[in-house]
Design goal:
Layout: H1 13-22, H2 33-40, H3 44-56
The protein binds zinc ion.
Length: 63
C-alpha cells in the first residue's frame, strides 16, 4: 500500500486516483488528501467533492 510522501499516512485508492487526476498521471509518489489540499491551497472538502464528481461521471480511476 502506498503512503503519503509528506505525512506517511497510508493512502486510500481514491487518494491515489485523485493525485493521478490532479497532479501527475505518471506519479510514483503520492500525497494524502490533506497534504494535497494544503499543497493546492484548497480545502479537503473541495477535493472530496472532486472525488465524488469523478465517480459520478464514471471515471474509471474511481470505481
Ligand atoms: Zn499526508
Amino acid at each position: 500500500m502506498e503512503k503519503c510522501e509528506k505525512c506517511g499516512r497510508q493512502l486510500k485508492a481514491d487518494e491515489i486516483s485523485l493525485y493521478f487526476k490532479l497532479v501527475d498521471r505518471e506519479a510514483k509518489n503520492f500525497l494524502c488528501i490533506d497534504c494535497l489540499a494544503e499543497k493546492m491551497k484548497v480545502t479537503r472538502e473541495m477535493l472530496e467533492k472532486k472525488i465524488e464528481y469523478f465517480r459520478e461521471i464514471g471515471c474509471t480511476l474511481f470505481p
